[in-house]
Amino acid sequence: MPKDPGAPHRAPVTDRSSIRPGNLGSVLRRLRDDGPRSRTQLAADTGLPKATVSTLVNELTDLGLVREGDPQRSEGAIGRPRLAVELDGSRVCGIGVEINVDYVAAIALDLRGRTVFERRAAADVPALGPAGTLDVVAELTTEAIARTRAQGVRPVGMTIAAPGGADAAGGSITTAVNLGWRDASIVAPLRERFGPHAPLPPIAIRNDAHVATVAEYVAVAGDGVRDLLYVTGEVGVGGGVYSGGRPYQGSRGRACEFGHMPINPEPVPCPCGRVGCWETMVGLGAFLERATDSGDAVRDPLTDRERRLADLHSRAEAGDERTLTALREVAAGLGRGVALLVDAFDPELVVLGGYFTQFADYLLEPVQRTIDERVLAPSTGRCEVRPSTYRYTSTVRGGAQFALEPLFQDPVGTVGRSPEL
Ligand SMILES: [Zn+2]
Question: Is the N or the C terminus of the chain less surrounded, counting Cβ atoms within 10 Å?
Fold first, then answer.
Protein backbone atom coordinates (compact mmCIF):
# COMPACT_ATOMS: atom_id res chain seq x y z
CA MET A 1 0.00 0.00 0.00
CA PRO A 2 1.46 3.44 -0.86
CA LYS A 3 2.31 5.47 2.16
CA ASP A 4 0.24 8.61 2.67
CA PRO A 5 2.72 11.34 3.59
CA GLY A 6 -0.08 13.33 5.25
CA ALA A 7 -1.09 10.49 7.56
CA PRO A 8 -0.35 11.04 11.26
CA HIS A 9 2.46 9.02 12.74
CA ARG A 10 1.15 5.65 13.83
CA ALA A 11 2.60 3.37 16.44
CA PRO A 12 3.19 -0.09 14.96
CA VAL A 13 0.28 -2.41 15.68
CA THR A 14 2.13 -4.95 17.73
CA ASP A 15 -0.73 -6.28 19.80
CA ARG A 16 -4.16 -6.50 18.16
CA SER A 17 -5.46 -8.38 21.19
CA SER A 18 -5.12 -5.17 23.21
CA ILE A 19 -7.99 -3.67 21.16
CA ARG A 20 -10.49 -5.23 23.48
CA PRO A 21 -13.85 -3.46 23.89
CA GLY A 22 -13.16 -2.83 27.58
CA ASN A 23 -9.75 -1.21 26.93
CA LEU A 24 -11.13 0.98 24.12
CA GLY A 25 -14.06 1.97 26.33
CA SER A 26 -11.93 2.80 29.36
CA VAL A 27 -9.68 5.14 27.31
CA LEU A 28 -12.83 6.85 26.00
CA ARG A 29 -14.30 7.15 29.51
CA ARG A 30 -11.08 8.72 30.84
CA LEU A 31 -11.25 11.37 28.14
CA ARG A 32 -14.90 12.11 29.00
CA ASP A 33 -14.46 12.26 32.79
CA ASP A 34 -10.99 13.82 33.04
CA GLY A 35 -10.66 15.81 29.81
CA PRO A 36 -7.97 15.90 27.07
CA ARG A 37 -4.66 14.23 27.92
CA SER A 38 -1.53 12.87 26.33
CA ARG A 39 -1.01 9.21 25.45
CA THR A 40 1.60 9.03 28.24
CA GLN A 41 -0.94 10.34 30.75
CA LEU A 42 -3.60 7.91 29.44
CA ALA A 43 -1.13 5.05 29.91
CA ALA A 44 -0.51 6.18 33.51
CA ASP A 45 -4.27 6.56 34.14
CA THR A 46 -5.30 3.19 32.73
CA GLY A 47 -2.25 1.14 33.71
CA LEU A 48 -1.87 -0.03 30.10
CA PRO A 49 1.48 0.02 28.24
CA LYS A 50 2.02 3.18 26.16
CA ALA A 51 2.25 1.21 22.89
CA THR A 52 -1.13 -0.36 23.68
CA VAL A 53 -2.63 3.06 24.43
CA SER A 54 -1.33 4.35 21.06
CA THR A 55 -2.96 1.40 19.29
CA LEU A 56 -6.24 2.03 21.11
CA VAL A 57 -6.15 5.77 20.34
CA ASN A 58 -5.57 4.98 16.64
CA GLU A 59 -8.54 2.62 16.63
CA LEU A 60 -10.76 5.23 18.34
CA THR A 61 -9.55 7.86 15.84
CA ASP A 62 -10.55 5.58 12.95
CA LEU A 63 -14.02 5.24 14.51
CA GLY A 64 -14.29 9.04 14.63
CA LEU A 65 -14.57 9.10 18.41
CA VAL A 66 -11.29 10.84 19.34
CA ARG A 67 -8.92 13.29 17.66
CA GLU A 68 -5.63 15.07 18.25
CA GLY A 69 -6.16 18.12 20.46
CA ASP A 70 -3.92 21.07 21.30
CA PRO A 71 -0.35 20.32 22.43
CA GLN A 72 -0.09 20.00 26.23
CA ARG A 73 2.94 20.75 28.34
CA SER A 74 2.76 19.31 31.82
CA GLU A 75 3.68 21.66 34.65
CA GLY A 76 7.41 22.21 35.07
CA ALA A 77 8.23 19.95 32.09
CA ILE A 78 10.78 21.02 29.51
CA GLY A 79 11.17 20.02 25.89
CA ARG A 80 8.60 19.30 23.23
CA PRO A 81 4.96 19.58 24.44
CA ARG A 82 2.98 16.37 24.11
CA LEU A 83 0.06 16.06 21.71
CA ALA A 84 -3.13 15.68 23.69
CA VAL A 85 -5.94 13.35 22.70
CA GLU A 86 -9.53 14.54 23.09
CA LEU A 87 -13.06 13.35 22.36
CA ASP A 88 -14.29 14.09 18.84
CA GLY A 89 -17.87 15.32 19.08
CA SER A 90 -18.52 15.68 15.37
CA ARG A 91 -19.47 12.12 14.42
CA VAL A 92 -21.87 10.48 16.91
CA CYS A 93 -24.62 11.55 19.27
CA GLY A 94 -27.11 10.11 21.74
CA ILE A 95 -30.78 11.09 21.78
CA GLY A 96 -32.68 11.55 25.04
CA VAL A 97 -36.46 11.77 25.18
CA GLU A 98 -38.27 12.72 28.38
CA ILE A 99 -41.93 12.02 29.04
CA ASN A 100 -43.05 14.18 31.94
CA VAL A 101 -46.50 14.94 33.36
CA ASP A 102 -46.80 18.24 31.48
CA TYR A 103 -44.30 18.06 28.62
CA VAL A 104 -42.36 15.84 26.23
CA ALA A 105 -38.78 16.86 25.44
CA ALA A 106 -36.03 15.59 23.16
CA ILE A 107 -32.34 16.46 22.97
CA ALA A 108 -29.36 15.14 20.99
CA LEU A 109 -25.92 15.50 22.59
CA ASP A 110 -22.69 14.68 20.83
CA LEU A 111 -19.82 12.84 22.49
CA ARG A 112 -18.43 16.11 23.90
CA GLY A 113 -21.83 17.03 25.39
CA ARG A 114 -22.59 19.68 22.77
CA THR A 115 -26.31 20.11 21.99
CA VAL A 116 -27.01 19.11 18.38
CA PHE A 117 -30.80 19.31 18.66
CA GLU A 118 -33.24 20.34 21.40
CA ARG A 119 -37.02 20.73 21.60
CA ARG A 120 -39.64 20.68 24.35
CA ALA A 121 -43.40 20.43 23.71
CA ALA A 122 -45.94 21.25 26.44
CA ALA A 123 -48.40 18.33 26.66
CA ASP A 124 -51.05 17.11 29.09
CA VAL A 125 -49.57 13.60 29.18
CA PRO A 126 -52.09 11.97 31.60
CA ALA A 127 -54.94 13.17 29.31
CA LEU A 128 -53.16 12.06 26.10
CA GLY A 129 -52.50 8.55 27.44
CA PRO A 130 -49.69 6.30 26.10
CA ALA A 131 -50.86 6.28 22.44
CA GLY A 132 -51.32 10.05 22.14
CA THR A 133 -48.05 10.68 23.97
CA LEU A 134 -46.17 8.30 21.66
CA ASP A 135 -47.42 10.35 18.69
CA VAL A 136 -45.70 13.39 20.24
CA VAL A 137 -42.57 11.33 20.98
CA ALA A 138 -42.50 10.06 17.37
CA GLU A 139 -42.80 13.61 16.01
CA LEU A 140 -39.96 14.89 18.19
CA THR A 141 -37.64 11.96 17.49
CA THR A 142 -38.28 12.12 13.73
CA GLU A 143 -37.15 15.75 13.84
CA ALA A 144 -34.18 14.92 16.10
CA ILE A 145 -32.93 12.15 13.81
CA ALA A 146 -33.40 14.22 10.64
CA ARG A 147 -31.63 17.26 12.10
CA THR A 148 -28.67 15.32 13.52
CA ARG A 149 -28.15 13.31 10.34
CA ALA A 150 -28.32 16.52 8.29
CA GLN A 151 -25.34 17.74 10.37
CA GLY A 152 -23.45 14.51 9.65
CA VAL A 153 -23.85 13.29 13.24
CA ARG A 154 -24.93 9.69 13.66
CA PRO A 155 -27.32 8.77 16.51
CA VAL A 156 -25.93 5.64 18.23
CA GLY A 157 -28.79 5.21 20.70
CA MET A 158 -31.95 6.69 22.09
CA THR A 159 -33.22 6.63 25.69
CA ILE A 160 -36.82 7.29 26.62
CA ALA A 161 -37.06 8.42 30.23
CA ALA A 162 -40.34 8.44 32.14
CA PRO A 163 -41.38 8.87 35.76
CA GLY A 164 -41.98 5.57 37.53
CA GLY A 165 -40.92 1.99 36.99
CA ALA A 166 -39.34 1.07 33.66
CA ASP A 167 -39.06 -2.49 32.37
CA ALA A 168 -35.87 -2.12 30.36
CA ALA A 169 -36.00 -5.62 28.85
CA GLY A 170 -39.69 -5.42 27.92
CA GLY A 171 -39.49 -1.82 26.65
CA SER A 172 -42.41 -0.71 28.79
CA ILE A 173 -43.39 1.50 31.71
CA THR A 174 -44.67 -0.72 34.49
CA THR A 175 -46.20 1.87 36.80
CA ALA A 176 -46.18 5.65 36.47
CA VAL A 177 -48.67 6.80 39.09
CA ASN A 178 -48.39 10.48 38.21
CA LEU A 179 -49.13 9.74 34.54
CA GLY A 180 -51.87 7.27 35.46
CA TRP A 181 -50.11 4.61 33.30
CA ARG A 182 -49.72 0.94 34.10
CA ASP A 183 -47.92 -1.65 31.94
CA ALA A 184 -47.70 0.74 29.01
CA SER A 185 -45.70 -0.72 26.12
CA ILE A 186 -43.43 2.01 24.69
CA VAL A 187 -40.56 0.78 22.52
CA ALA A 188 -42.49 -1.59 20.22
CA PRO A 189 -45.39 0.81 19.42
CA LEU A 190 -42.89 3.64 18.88
CA ARG A 191 -40.94 1.52 16.36
CA GLU A 192 -44.25 0.69 14.64
CA ARG A 193 -44.88 4.40 14.10
CA PHE A 194 -41.63 4.60 12.11
CA GLY A 195 -42.25 1.45 10.03
CA PRO A 196 -40.12 -1.71 9.81
CA HIS A 197 -37.26 -0.29 7.68
CA ALA A 198 -36.70 3.05 9.40
CA PRO A 199 -33.01 3.64 10.26
CA LEU A 200 -33.53 3.86 14.02
CA PRO A 201 -30.77 3.49 16.59
CA PRO A 202 -31.30 1.07 19.53
CA ILE A 203 -34.02 2.39 21.87
CA ALA A 204 -33.93 1.93 25.66
CA ILE A 205 -36.40 2.92 28.36
CA ARG A 206 -35.35 4.05 31.84
CA ASN A 207 -36.58 5.78 34.99
CA ASP A 208 -36.32 9.56 34.59
CA ALA A 209 -34.52 10.34 37.85
CA HIS A 210 -31.93 7.59 37.24
CA VAL A 211 -30.88 9.10 33.90
CA ALA A 212 -31.00 12.65 35.32
CA THR A 213 -28.47 11.49 37.91
CA VAL A 214 -26.15 10.44 35.05
CA ALA A 215 -26.21 14.03 33.69
CA GLU A 216 -25.62 15.56 37.11
CA TYR A 217 -22.78 13.13 37.81
CA VAL A 218 -21.03 13.75 34.48
CA ALA A 219 -21.29 17.51 35.17
CA VAL A 220 -19.35 17.26 38.47
CA ALA A 221 -17.12 14.20 37.86
CA GLY A 222 -14.39 16.52 36.54
CA ASP A 223 -14.25 18.16 40.01
CA GLY A 224 -13.40 14.77 41.50
CA VAL A 225 -16.87 14.05 42.95
CA ARG A 226 -17.54 10.28 43.10
CA ASP A 227 -20.33 10.00 45.74
CA LEU A 228 -23.41 11.96 44.79
CA LEU A 229 -27.06 12.07 45.90
CA TYR A 230 -29.55 13.61 43.48
CA VAL A 231 -33.06 14.53 44.60
CA THR A 232 -35.46 16.06 42.11
CA GLY A 233 -38.74 17.89 42.64
CA GLU A 234 -41.22 17.10 39.91
CA VAL A 235 -44.90 16.27 40.36
CA GLY A 236 -43.33 13.26 42.06
CA VAL A 237 -40.03 13.23 43.93
CA GLY A 238 -37.30 10.91 42.73
CA GLY A 239 -33.58 10.72 42.63
CA GLY A 240 -30.48 8.68 42.20
CA VAL A 241 -27.18 7.83 43.84
CA TYR A 242 -23.62 7.48 42.55
CA SER A 243 -21.35 5.58 44.90
CA GLY A 244 -17.62 5.37 44.19
CA GLY A 245 -18.27 6.69 40.66
CA ARG A 246 -20.86 4.01 39.82
CA PRO A 247 -24.66 4.41 39.67
CA TYR A 248 -26.59 2.59 42.37
CA GLN A 249 -29.43 0.69 40.65
CA GLY A 250 -30.83 -1.84 43.12
CA SER A 251 -31.52 -5.49 42.36
CA ARG A 252 -34.41 -4.75 39.93
CA GLY A 253 -33.38 -1.29 38.77
CA ARG A 254 -35.99 0.31 41.02
CA ALA A 255 -33.77 1.89 43.67
CA CYS A 256 -34.11 5.48 44.87
CA GLU A 257 -37.92 5.88 44.85
CA PHE A 258 -37.34 8.46 47.56
CA GLY A 259 -40.70 10.20 47.05
CA HIS A 260 -42.56 7.37 48.76
CA MET A 261 -40.65 7.34 52.05
CA PRO A 262 -43.40 7.67 54.69
CA ILE A 263 -42.16 10.77 56.48
CA ASN A 264 -45.09 13.19 56.29
CA PRO A 265 -46.52 13.40 59.84
CA GLU A 266 -49.89 14.24 58.21
CA PRO A 267 -51.65 11.20 56.63
CA VAL A 268 -52.02 12.88 53.21
CA PRO A 269 -53.06 10.38 50.50
CA CYS A 270 -50.44 9.75 47.75
CA PRO A 271 -51.25 8.64 44.15
CA CYS A 272 -49.32 5.42 44.98
CA GLY A 273 -52.16 4.36 47.27
CA ARG A 274 -50.35 4.92 50.56
CA VAL A 275 -50.50 7.92 52.89
CA GLY A 276 -47.85 10.28 54.24
CA CYS A 277 -45.31 9.85 51.40
CA TRP A 278 -42.51 12.44 51.18
CA GLU A 279 -43.83 13.76 47.84
CA THR A 280 -47.11 14.74 49.55
CA MET A 281 -44.94 17.24 51.49
CA VAL A 282 -42.49 18.46 48.84
CA GLY A 283 -43.70 17.33 45.38
CA LEU A 284 -44.63 20.05 42.88
CA GLY A 285 -48.34 19.25 43.31
CA ALA A 286 -48.13 19.70 47.10
CA PHE A 287 -46.24 22.98 46.66
CA LEU A 288 -48.76 24.37 44.13
CA GLU A 289 -51.68 23.38 46.35
CA ARG A 290 -50.21 25.29 49.26
CA ALA A 291 -49.13 28.30 47.21
CA THR A 292 -52.07 28.75 44.80
CA ASP A 293 -55.85 28.36 44.36
CA SER A 294 -57.20 25.70 41.97
CA GLY A 295 -58.03 28.12 39.12
CA ASP A 296 -54.61 29.83 39.22
CA ALA A 297 -52.88 30.05 35.80
CA VAL A 298 -49.70 28.75 37.50
CA ARG A 299 -51.37 25.31 37.60
CA ASP A 300 -52.23 25.17 33.85
CA PRO A 301 -50.40 22.09 32.51
CA LEU A 302 -50.55 23.40 28.93
CA THR A 303 -48.33 26.37 29.71
CA ASP A 304 -44.59 25.72 29.88
CA ARG A 305 -43.70 24.78 33.46
CA GLU A 306 -40.61 26.95 33.73
CA ARG A 307 -42.62 30.03 32.72
CA ARG A 308 -45.45 29.22 35.14
CA LEU A 309 -43.07 28.74 38.03
CA ALA A 310 -41.19 31.92 37.09
CA ASP A 311 -44.48 33.72 37.82
CA LEU A 312 -44.64 32.05 41.21
CA HIS A 313 -41.00 32.93 41.85
CA SER A 314 -41.81 36.58 41.12
CA ARG A 315 -44.58 36.44 43.74
CA ALA A 316 -42.06 35.21 46.30
CA GLU A 317 -39.67 38.01 45.30
CA ALA A 318 -42.50 40.53 45.76
CA GLY A 319 -42.98 39.21 49.31
CA ASP A 320 -46.29 37.36 48.76
CA GLU A 321 -46.84 35.73 52.15
CA ARG A 322 -48.75 32.69 50.86
CA THR A 323 -45.95 31.77 48.43
CA LEU A 324 -43.26 32.36 51.06
CA THR A 325 -45.09 30.21 53.65
CA ALA A 326 -45.44 27.39 51.09
CA LEU A 327 -41.70 27.64 50.34
CA ARG A 328 -40.82 27.53 54.06
CA GLU A 329 -42.93 24.37 54.44
CA VAL A 330 -41.31 22.75 51.40
CA ALA A 331 -37.85 23.68 52.74
CA ALA A 332 -38.62 22.08 56.12
CA GLY A 333 -39.93 18.85 54.52
CA LEU A 334 -37.06 18.76 52.04
CA GLY A 335 -34.43 19.18 54.77
CA ARG A 336 -36.02 16.42 56.82
CA GLY A 337 -35.96 13.88 53.95
CA VAL A 338 -32.56 14.86 52.53
CA ALA A 339 -30.91 14.60 55.99
CA LEU A 340 -32.31 11.06 56.26
CA LEU A 341 -30.86 10.15 52.85
CA VAL A 342 -27.51 11.72 53.73
CA ASP A 343 -27.35 9.45 56.79
CA ALA A 344 -28.25 6.46 54.60
CA PHE A 345 -25.88 7.07 51.63
CA ASP A 346 -23.10 9.31 53.00
CA PRO A 347 -22.66 11.39 49.81
CA GLU A 348 -20.10 14.18 49.49
CA LEU A 349 -22.52 16.24 47.40
CA VAL A 350 -26.32 16.57 47.30
CA VAL A 351 -27.77 18.01 44.09
CA LEU A 352 -31.34 19.33 44.16
CA GLY A 353 -33.08 19.25 40.76
CA GLY A 354 -36.39 20.05 39.09
CA TYR A 355 -38.42 22.86 40.65
CA PHE A 356 -36.15 22.77 43.73
CA THR A 357 -33.50 24.34 41.45
CA GLN A 358 -35.80 27.09 40.23
CA PHE A 359 -36.47 28.01 43.90
CA ALA A 360 -32.91 27.30 45.05
CA ASP A 361 -32.58 30.80 46.51
CA TYR A 362 -35.35 29.89 48.99
CA LEU A 363 -34.61 26.19 49.56
CA LEU A 364 -30.86 25.58 49.48
CA GLU A 365 -29.81 27.43 52.61
CA PRO A 366 -32.48 25.94 54.95
CA VAL A 367 -31.83 22.43 53.57
CA GLN A 368 -28.06 22.84 54.08
CA ARG A 369 -28.71 24.05 57.64
CA THR A 370 -30.92 21.03 58.43
CA ILE A 371 -28.28 18.62 57.12
CA ASP A 372 -25.55 20.35 59.12
CA GLU A 373 -27.70 20.13 62.28
CA ARG A 374 -29.03 16.61 61.86
CA VAL A 375 -26.37 14.42 60.31
CA LEU A 376 -24.97 11.86 62.68
CA ALA A 377 -21.24 12.40 62.20
CA PRO A 378 -20.65 16.08 61.36
CA SER A 379 -16.96 15.79 62.31
CA THR A 380 -16.28 13.54 59.30
CA GLY A 381 -16.79 16.45 56.90
CA ARG A 382 -19.54 18.59 55.49
CA CYS A 383 -21.91 17.32 52.85
CA GLU A 384 -22.55 20.18 50.45
CA VAL A 385 -25.95 20.94 48.86
CA ARG A 386 -25.99 22.44 45.36
CA PRO A 387 -28.65 23.23 42.76
CA SER A 388 -28.79 21.11 39.62
CA THR A 389 -26.43 22.03 36.80
CA TYR A 390 -29.21 21.68 34.24
CA ARG A 391 -32.49 22.49 36.07
CA TYR A 392 -35.32 20.98 33.94
CA THR A 393 -33.08 19.43 31.31
CA SER A 394 -31.16 16.97 33.54
CA THR A 395 -33.44 14.07 32.61
CA VAL A 396 -33.46 14.62 28.88
CA ARG A 397 -29.68 15.29 28.88
CA GLY A 398 -29.08 12.25 31.05
CA GLY A 399 -31.14 10.23 28.57
CA ALA A 400 -28.85 11.34 25.74
CA GLN A 401 -25.74 10.56 27.81
CA PHE A 402 -27.18 7.18 28.81
CA ALA A 403 -27.74 6.48 25.08
CA LEU A 404 -24.00 7.13 24.54
CA GLU A 405 -23.08 4.81 27.44
CA PRO A 406 -22.68 1.61 25.30
CA LEU A 407 -19.84 3.43 23.48
CA PHE A 408 -17.88 3.35 26.74
CA GLN A 409 -18.35 -0.44 26.99
CA ASP A 410 -17.87 -1.45 23.35
CA PRO A 411 -17.09 1.40 20.93
CA VAL A 412 -16.66 -0.78 17.82
CA GLY A 413 -19.89 -2.76 18.35
CA THR A 414 -21.93 0.35 19.25
CA VAL A 415 -20.88 2.32 16.17
CA GLY A 416 -21.46 -0.84 14.08
CA ARG A 417 -25.02 -1.22 15.37
CA SER A 418 -26.07 2.34 14.59
CA PRO A 419 -27.65 3.01 11.19
CA GLU A 420 -25.36 4.42 8.48
CA LEU A 421 -25.87 8.05 7.53
ZN1 LIG B 1 -46.52 7.40 47.67
Answer: N
